[in-house]
Amino acid sequence: MDIISEIREGLRKPGKSKIGLAAALGRQPSVVTAILGEGKNGKPRQVKADEVEKIRAYFRDGEQTGTVIRPEGPEPSEVSPAPNAPRFSQFGDFDVEVKGITVGGNDDEFYFNGKVSEHVRRPPGLLHKKGVFAVEVSNDSMVPRYEVGEIVYVQEKVPASGDHVVIELYHPDDETQAGKSFVKKFERRTGRRIYCTQYNPPKEIEFDTGEVKAVYRVFPNRELFG
Which intervals hold domain Peptidase S24/S26A/S26B/S26C (predicted)? Predict the structure, then answer.
């Protein structure tokens, strides 16, 4: 049985879900959707070697060797929906592109390669936003705000102090090629410098404005869900 079939079979088990599997992988639920080929392009995403054991461990966890019988049946759930929580029908299509990453490195840097690695669903707060795309955080320099593998939605926009941003630099040798990019917290901008900070370890980062190709503002959760 291949790993995709194992996932589909595992999801039929009581208490197992795509959301739970995504949490076990340390990823967003959209990654599980992509693995199963249920995204916009309909093509399954390749399962990475380090993800296989995590997937199998998730479906093994809590398995019983026998049948548990409760005379009075399952206890009623005390969980109630959050007030004003967006319904699934309020979300848009899987039309937000996740930009591909070619090279990872220090300080949460990566290279845009112009390719789309997958598509993720458009949150309700971004239904009418233009120029939105997503990137995957590739390093732990912004922990605890952003974990490794977390998907963030961005848009090219002038940020305000305190916004989180993705800063894309020009390639040092060829401006037509992909340059490095960094996920940071924006602090301020002068004529020649952009000043940012990171959390892990805490420090200030400076960027020369002449080397900056674009600044993308990261949408905070409150804006994603309206």
Answer: 116-204
